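Retro notes, structure queue

What went well: the backlog is down to a handful. What didn't: a couple of records were mislabeled last round, so from now on we paste the full input next to the output in the thread. Example, using DUF3298 domain-containing protein from Chryseobacterium fistulae:
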Amino acid sequence: MKRTLVVLTISTFFIFYACKKTEKDVTVVDTELSEPEKLMVDSVSVSDSITLSDSLKLKFNSKMLVFPTITDEKLLDSIYFQNKNINDFSKNGLKSLAEKNKNNYFNNAKKDSEDWLSDIKFSQQWYTDTSMKLKGTLNDYLHIQYFWNTYEGGAHDNYSFTERVFDLKNNKKLELKDITSMPEKKIGELLKKNIDKMNSGTTDENGTVKNSEMLLVDVIPANNSFYFDDKNLYFHYSPYEIAAFAAGDIVIPISWEELKGSLNPEFKKRMKIQ
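Corresponding output:
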């Protein structure tokens, strides 16, 4: 059977969903964080399904955040990085984009399924689900979590998370170099040391399984999926990125104290880090 539906998902963010873990809800703001005074946030959602045959149903879900008060196009392009060539960032424009993505998904699936649809012998529902979640704002830094989940048959679905932080004062996506000058090798050592500080929630017949017991790599790289609060810098890894699928997604914290001496002075001042 041709495995083409993942390619058909219009907002692919990266990879995979884990067993024995609940999907992260698309709730809104972290109550410990405060929004910038003039920041306005809205959202649009599109959900639909079609039946391709007696044995296969397709479902599409998409939720996109809308920021009416953000006007910088470069910043908006970065916020909606998973969709290329957007010309209208208004609520109606993003709603139209989601509808277009839905129609493309269904139309391409209908066309491609002609070669393999008859091979499906039992009832299934395949789906694609993409969403943006506002995690909060802190000192004019905007944190958005992007979620992607899809199922196209097989033993399990696939999913990934991407964390992005945006600097609303300077109208740009925050890069790791804007936070710390610590060499990647040293950051990797801290990530390896802290791997078990936040358990992924994975269990087996003997109880909780440590993240370190499921690692697939000897060196944990600092990825671009990071965020922070007033205590730590966090790196978020999707399944298979550094660990076995059963580990699910893993979050590793590095404290500001551990990064002491390498923090960007402007960032340190803005975050009031002692």
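Agreed that this is the format going forward. Reviewer comment attached to the example: Residues 1-36 have pLDDT under 50 and may be disordered.
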